Amino acid sequence: MKILTAYFSRRGLNYAAGSIVDLPVGNTEAAAKMIAELTGCDLYEIERAEPYSKEYRGCVDEAKAELAADARPALKTAPPDISAYDAVILGYPNWCGTMPMPVWTFLESGDFSGKVIAPFCTNEGSGLKRSVDDINRLCPGADQKEGLSIRGCQVVSARGDIERWLKKLGLI
Hints:
alpha/beta; six-stranded parallel beta sheet; 5 helices; globular
């Protein structure tokens, strides 16, 4: 099975365990790299062409405005050809109860019909929220699997949970 892990992550100032902390590697990126080690999959980082504010509050304000406008921000690099993959493991932080809007841009960039989509979401307790429903709407022909919610502040110790999830889904 040919697998792509596509993920959106935020380095820098982030909310974690009740505080704003400076992360040299975003939580979702750290989890995506664990997944790549476990599966041998290809990695694609979903990046907004114009970076979000480096300040946490500024980024939150931008994310809220994009969601309210139902925006599809341009991506820094073109997504890979989805037709080359059987499964896409999709990672993102929970922003405003769903995925960051660049993830929406990514999902609308290809045909996911017949592809397995396995979502994982980093968050500080809010879980997957409505992102699962949003993925189903954006990719109606995909075979969406059970998602995994990972506490961002605990991502460094989540390897066992990630491995169990991947095994349960038959991805390793």
